[in-house]
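Give me the 3D structure for PurR-regulated permease PerM.
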Amino acid sequence: MLQPQSRTALPPFAATAAVVAILYFARDVFLPLAIAVLLTFALAPIVSWLRRFGVPRLVSVIACVLAAFGVVAVFSFVVVSQIGEVAQNVPTYQSNILNKVRALKESGSGEGIIDRLSGVIERVGQEIDKPEDNLAPAAHPSRPDPLLVEIFTPQKPIETLMNLITPLIGPLATAGLVIVVVIFMLLEREDLRDRFIRLVGYGDLHRTTEALQDAGRRVGQYLLMQLVVNVAYGVPIGMGLWLLGIPNAILWGLLAIVLRFVPYIGPAIAMILPLFLAIAVAPGWSLVLWAAALFIAMELVINNVLEPWLYGSRTGLSPLAIIVAAIFWTWLWGPVGLVLSTPLTVCLVVLGKHVPQFEFLEVLFGNEPVLDPKERLYQRLLAGDPDEATDHAEEMLETEYLVDFYGNVAIPALLLGEFDRARGALTDEQRTRVAASAVVLVANLNEIAGEEADEEDDAPEDVTQDDGEPADELPDGAGKAVLCIGGRGELDNAAAAMLAQVLTVQGATVATANHADVEPSSIRSLPLEGVHTAVIGFLNADSLHHGRFLVRRLKRAKPSLRVGVVLWTDGAAGDADKLAGDLNADFAAFNMAGATIGALTDAPAVPLKAAKRKVRRPSQAGRKSKTA
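Predicted structure for PurR-regulated permease PerM (628 residues):
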């Protein structure tokens, strides 16, 4: 019996292209629905608030919708009336505009830039309009140019009325449709939610419910906060323009509120018209400068004070995503799409966050880092860019100590490199580049290390280990000399340099040695004079067999030397004691905090155990020869 074939899913790219095509060609249907959905998200918290006070659902819904659209209607009426007043007053400003143009033309020499540009344009126009020379004489006398005759037919009153009403039918019908849809969505919000869950997420109620709540929360908060920010921006703009004496200040304040919904370019558009009117109203240039200063000051206050305080990271969009979304939705739905671009993109990011098939949307448009800090640092080290790695480290060190950064980020980044080396994915050149970049990173952080060392408390009181468990306070390293050694390769050398810097911050005198310095031929040349403790670090657990020989060599070179081994992996304290016993080391550790504590402990050195030797049993032939 043939098994039924599984239904193949439409490829993501083809599905996305199909959705975009549907949204474009059916924009007359989807645009009012999108507006209605966003307004539902914005008004739903107000309806819920009224419901908590015992207001019936129908009353609260109709009251919210009528209030919202009443505000929009009053707003539109004021804007239209103000625009009509500006249109009537424009001819009165003509003389000031002409005077300013003459002043610009007369500024400087007689051949100013405006005169030269005007002359060039005039000559080009004359050349274009110049008729071609006819070499042959005209066969017939030229006829006079025909006269343009226009037939004027007076319109009937009913036709005039229709011409006025027809352009308004489309916007009014759309507004009415949006109002009706918003009312029904608010009335049947729970039922629509249940139907949506049954349609797309019945198999995972938890994830679908969380996605709906997240989308409603993000979009609602964004719209509310954006409205608060825009009002806090437009009202002072209107009042300031009124105090400066610019006509129709109410209009410019209201337009500033609306245009600021448009990302980035909205405030610039809102500033152009008042500045042009300032040029037309006053004979001088001081009013223009004051108006420009008002807009710039408000932008600085809103962008640097109010928006970070109100927004935080509530939208979840990166700045580049906002720009790309504005371009896309403007192409798709025109100016209305430009205004709706940010909340619509927020919905897409929420969809990508909770639906695995659309995870690429969150990666493309979200503001959350797509790589872990350790992966990001490793990528920079692998690319041979220690400067950007330093910038990344400095950002984290604004809130963390070096011991935390090295233990939680830098050492795990080196572990990623060691893992790639062990599986053959990292070439020798790349391994050398990663190690060299890590050493440069450590050198670049010397200034921060010095600042930590100069603090009143040399060690942080609450150090956390790599596994998130609290660690003991780091001891003072004053008067102690420590030698940090890379165990087996260049990456181990870089880890040793990081440990050395942490020990230096604690006040110890620290030297470093690479893995080649502990070879049998060169171990006698190590600077062990005055050294209290030597710490050997390994990124690979397979190197511990080699670590046992290194411990014996160092203890033979200096019997009073404390020798510790650090295996930069996860491990418990009991495992560290067992590892130290197996390697005949004075201590063992698995993280930066443990290595620092072990290196700066005042415990005496563990005596070197005698190596167990295997006794070879004589062969049978040997026994016979010895008997003979």
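Confidence is low (pLDDT under 50) at residues 1-10, 465-471. Let me know if you want a second pass.
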